[in-house]
């Protein structure tokens, strides 16, 4: 990962947020920027070298950033509890502000887990503002397997070494963990579902998931395919919830082929073309 992280300041809900970000890959790429959206406990640094290697190998320019409450971005106050629409707010409010600040137009979105859900939500609400979506191990509704493993993560954070491992990647590790864990285990979140919103997506979409994903069944990606008829499905064998760690070569191959096949150029404003 490029360690030359910078800070973007945006206005959100009447306050200033500082979001850490870094550019990776080919600065003069002919393709739109690929924006990497991390998982629920992720950050810029937790992607490690995957975005840089992926973009450099395929002639792409990438933007990697830490969402609000993660990494070295503005921390979440301890008294602030997220609502079930927290991913919608990231997609509909924060991403447009960040893109405007950095001059990013019609990016590709490469999202993992919660970041994959945020990518889908952005594409659904801004269909003309995105070139395509690579959604990896996304959530489109809440499953028992997800809740069980998020409860297990809570125990590992309180009584195991998870807190110390995450602290390497977050300036305020409690901000990152409890924001995510509390809302996912909130009974009000059990009915969270974005399936109906997927119908608004018109850009190219590839939905990728490991067959051994411990945070969701394959019904998550099959549900995407049922609602976006043009979407492509990719299931990776011998792979859990984090394909960029378990199967980085396979993930890179599938995602790069999809992006470069849908040859959308930076300044193109009409339909996608090859």
List the helices and strands and how they pair.
Blueprint: E1 6-12, E2 15-25, E3 34-37, H1 50-57, E4 61-65, H2 86-102, E5 108-112, H3 114-125, E6 132-136, H4 144-159, H5 162-166, H6 173-184, E7 205-210, H7 219-227, E8 232-236, H8 243-246, H9 248-261
Parallel strand pairs: 3-4, 3-5, 5-6, 6-7, 7-8
Antiparallel strand pairs: 1-2, 2-4
Helix pairs in contact: 2-3
Protein name: Alpha/beta hydrolase
GO molecular function: hydrolase activity
Domain AB hydrolase-1: 32-141
Can you describe this structure?
The chain has one domain: 3-Layer(aba) Sandwich (Rossmann fold), CATH 3.40.50.1820. Helices cover 35% and strands 18% of the residues. It has helices at 50-57, 86-102, 114-125, 144-159, 162-166, 173-184, 219-227, 243-246, 248-261, and strands spanning 6-12, 15-25, 34-37, 61-65, 108-112, 132-136, 205-210, 232-236.
* Unreliable residue runs: 267-274
Strand content: 15-25%
Distance between the ends: 30 Å
If you compute it from the alpha carbons, what radius of gyration comes out, rounded to the nearest whole angstrom?
Answer: 17 Å
> Per CATH, which architecture?
3-Layer(aba) Sandwich
Mean pLDDT: 94
The helix-strand sequence is: EEEHEHEHEHHHEHEHH
Instruction: Give the proportion of residues in helices.
Output: 25-40%
Q: By helix and strand content, what is the structural category?
A: alpha/beta
* Total tally of structural domains: 1
GO molecular function, one term: hydrolase activity
Protein name: Alpha/beta hydrolase
Pfam families: Abhydrolase_1 (PF00561)
Organism: Massilia eurypsychrophila
């Amino acid at each position: 990962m490029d360690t030359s992280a910078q800070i973007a300041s945006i206005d959100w809900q009447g306050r200033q947020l500082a979001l850490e970000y870094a550019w990776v890959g080919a600065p003069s790429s002919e393709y739109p920027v690929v924006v990497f959206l991390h998982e629920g406990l992720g950050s810029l640094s937790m992607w490690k070298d995957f975005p840089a290697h992926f973009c450099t190998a395929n002639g792409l320019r990438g933007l990697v950033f830490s969402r609000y409450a993660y990494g070295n971005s503005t921390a979440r106050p301890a008294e602030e509890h997220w609502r079930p629409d927290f991913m919608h707010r990231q997609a509909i409010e924060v991403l447009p502000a960040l893109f405007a600040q950095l001059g990013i137009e019609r990016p590709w979105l490469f999202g993992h887990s919660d970041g994959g859900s945020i990518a889908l939500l952005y594409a659904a609400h801004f269909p003309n503002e995105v070139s395509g979506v690579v959604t990896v191990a996304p959530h489109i509704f809440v499953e028992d397997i997800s809740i069980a493993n998020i409860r297990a993560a809570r125990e590992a954070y309180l009584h195991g070494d998870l807190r110390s491992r995450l602290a390497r990647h977050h300036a305020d590790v409690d901000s990152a963990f409890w924001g995510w864990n509390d809302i996912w285990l909130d009974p009000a979140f059990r009915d969270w579902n974005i399936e109906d919103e997927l119908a608004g997506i018109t850009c190219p979409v590839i939905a990728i998931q490991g067959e051994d994903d411990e945070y969701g069944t394959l019904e998550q990606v099959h549900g995407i395919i049922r609602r976006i008829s043009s979407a492509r499905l990719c299931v990776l064998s011998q792979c859990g919830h984090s394909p960029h760690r378990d199967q980085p070569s396979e993930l890179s191959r599938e995602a790069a082929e999809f992006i470069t096949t849908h040859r959308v150029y930076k300044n193109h404003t009409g339909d996608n073309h090859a």
